[in-house]
Amino acid sequence: MRLLGLVVAALAALPEVVECAGGRVHHAKDGSVIGTTAPRPTLKPKPLTTGKQFIKSERRKRTCFVDALGNGRDDAPQILAALHKCNGNGTVALLSPLYTIATPLDLTFLNGIDIDIQGTLKFTPDTDFWQANSFKYTFQNSSSFWQIGGTDVNIFGSGKGTIDGSGQAWYDLYAQDPLILRPILIAYKDLHGATISGLKLRYSPQWYQIVIDSSNIIFDGIDIFGGSISKNPAKNTDGWDTYRSDNIVIQNSHIDNGDDCVSFKPNSTNMVVQGLFCNGSHGISVGSLGQYYKVYDLVEDVYVYNITMINASDMARIKVWPGIQSALSVDLQGGGGIGLVNNITYDNMQISNVDYGIELTQCYGQKNLTLCNEYPSTLEIKNVVFKNMWGTASKKYDPTVGTLVCSSPAVCHNIVAKNINVVPPSGKAPKYTCTNMDRTLLELPCA
Ligand SMILES: *[C@@H]1O[C@H](CO)[C@@H](O)[C@H](O)[C@H]1NC(C)=O
Ligand SMILES: *[C@@H]1O[C@H](CO)[C@@H](O)[C@H](O)[C@H]1NC(C)=O
Ligand SMILES: *[C@@H]1O[C@H](CO)[C@@H](O)[C@H](O)[C@H]1NC(C)=O
Ligand SMILES: *[C@@H]1O[C@H](CO)[C@@H](O)[C@H](O)[C@H]1NC(C)=O
Ligand SMILES: *[C@@H]1O[C@H](CO)[C@@H](O)[C@H](O)[C@H]1NC(C)=O
Ligand SMILES: *[C@@H]1O[C@H](CO)[C@@H](O)[C@H](O)[C@H]1NC(C)=O
Ligand SMILES: *[C@@H]1O[C@H](CO)[C@@H](O)[C@H](O)[C@H]1NC(C)=O
Ligand SMILES: *[C@@H]1O[C@H](CO)[C@@H](O)[C@H](O)[C@H]1NC(C)=O
Questions:
Q1: How far apart are CA 386 and CA 344, in angstroms?
Q2: Could you tell me the distance, in angstroms and rounded to a whole number, from the CA of residue 56 to the centre of ligand 3?
Q3: Does 102 map to a domain?
Q4: In the predicted model, what is the mean pLDDT of residues 359-372?
Q5: How many domains, the chain?
Q6: Inside any domain, residue 70
Q7: For ligand 2, which residues put their CB under 6 angstroms from it?
Q8: pLDDT tens by residue, 3-60
């Protein structure tokens, strides 16, 4: 009852204006200016596209402003109320400098709405509360602070809006117990037709974003940065993970993180990733796949284009679990899954200080290669092209600059590499590990 009262009070307090496409000045009760609404950016996949449709939203007709309560009070209830009120052709404007989010937000009801974020949304570092109350997903035991879904949704940060996960408390707790449930900073769940742009994402407890059961989304101008200030590293901070999703474009973004820059998890189709600068990551990855015994995973029709990758373990990466149960770490185990990786292109990539320009493995999570060969992967990889890559690897495996290892020739077909000009820092002739591959298709110096 108390919560309902709060929601009603918040609804009553929301001012409403008619016709607004940016440029409306919003005042506080004392007359001072809080901010001005931003125009919704017009976004298109560029230069490449998936060939499928994205949304064209109508002009929004109403604006709901949410002013932060301040002093660490939870702004989640009044944000929820505003989203309900302006859902259906409206805009919710978050113009205050700092909003505190202390309770989970299930925003999977959105339908025809713009969200103009110019301040910071900061999640509280209450690790006990969030572990008990976050949204839970069975895939890889993941969870999130909030979930955004629905149709025809534009969320824009205009280069200012920030989402802060207060990650430090989580990095330190994870170092003590790797089985804690670290929330993903943003989960897009059942979201169909959306643009997400101009946001700064900071200090995620683990992955920055997951896209689940979603379609037709453009991400543009996302700036990711985080890290730990203690001795405990910020681990598993993937930029994006796509899962059971179709027709997603990720472009023009800067990612400074410590795990996959982008990762296509099971059932990711029609993906374009272009114009990214990734620093410190594990590359643009297909997978890991085949983690769940006898489950069919598909990753198909993916184009990765124009990527700058620095200080990373990999640039182009395909990782598949072997046909036998394996443990990568105490909180990540799997193997024995089935499925297909088909029609994947990596094109136009510049690297610097990257361990492997190309890494393809069907032995993910298993150190014993003999065992991998005894139980080859039951997930086929075919029609993959790596082309136009240049730059310098790291000294880690010098002079080896790439590795392509299939667990059996029967499960890898038509894997092509051409115009790859990666050199090791020593200046020696570069080498590649190539196992169970059709070498006639690899224009690489296989050792
Ligand atoms: C939103 O606008 C469209 C087109 O103008 C209209 O059909 C629809 O009913 C509106 N939705 C709401 C909830 O007002
Ligand atoms: C590559 O991406 C960068 C942004 O990272 C952009 O400035 C540049 O124009 C893009 N080049 C091509 C050929 O698309
Ligand atoms: C790459 O990341 C490291 C570590 O966070 C940082 O020190 C460095 O400035 C970053 N470089 C670029 C070019 O972003
Ligand atoms: C992926 O899609 C296939 C159908 O194409 C389905 O059989 C399979 O269960 C899906 N896998 C996951 C992980 O959802
Ligand atoms: C391969 O994927 C690309 C998108 O990356 C798509 O344009 C093309 O049609 C696909 N090829 C086939 C044979 O389906
Ligand atoms: C999920 O967590 C449980 C324990 O909390 C663990 O036993 C299991 O292996 C985890 N699953 C995956 C896929 O990591
Ligand atoms: C990141 O890469 C740049 C360019 O290769 C290099 O100058 C810098 O030292 C690297 N930073 C780290 C933290 O490795
Ligand atoms: C690797 O696997 C093989 C085959 O099962 C086994 O004989 C061998 O002992 C294993 N090696 C190690 C180091 O565990």
A1: 8
A2: 36
A3: yes
A4: 89
A5: 1
A6: no
A7: 47, 252, 275, 277, 306
A8: 444 444 444 444 444 444 678 999 999 999 999 999 999 999 999 999 999 999 999 9
Residues serving a catalytic function are 282
294 within domain boundaries: yes
Least confident of 93-97, 244-248, 334-338, 368-372: 368-372
Instruction: Identify the residue whose C-alpha is closest to ligand 3 atom 1.
Output: 279
Tell whether the torsion through CA atoms of 361, 366, 372 and 377 is positive or negative: negative
Q: Which residues contact 280 (CB under 8 A, 6 or more apart)?
A: 256, 257, 258, 310, 311, 312
- Helices 76-86, 2-13: axis angle to 10 degrees equals 60
Range of the domain at 437: 95-110+117-441
pLDDT in tens, 273-293: 999 999 999 999 999 999 999
**Lowest-confidence segment of 275-279, 292-296, 354-358 by average pLDDT:** 292-296
Report the CATH number at residue 223.
Answer: 2.160.20.10
Closest ligand relative to 308 C-alpha: 2
Q: Which of 330, 260, 316, 265 is nearest to 295 (CA)?
A: 265
Q: Establish if 39 belongs to a structural domain.
A: no
